[in-house]
Amino acid sequence: NRERERSEERIRYRVQSAVSEQKKAAVKVTQGGLQGKRS
User: Fold this and answer.
1) What's the rounded Cα separation, in Å, for the pair 17 and 36?
2) Where are the domains of the chain?
3) Is this model's pTM higher than 0.70 or not?
4) Euclidean distance between the first and final Cα of the chain, in Å?
């Protein structure tokens, strides 16, 4: 049972890090798009 909890924690951590990376990329894309529209 503990092994399963540990693996779930690992998966959750991976998902959170992946989501944060996606958010960073999305922010870069939106900032670039806004700059492009302005110019």
Assistant:
1) 29
2) 1-39
3) no
4) 57
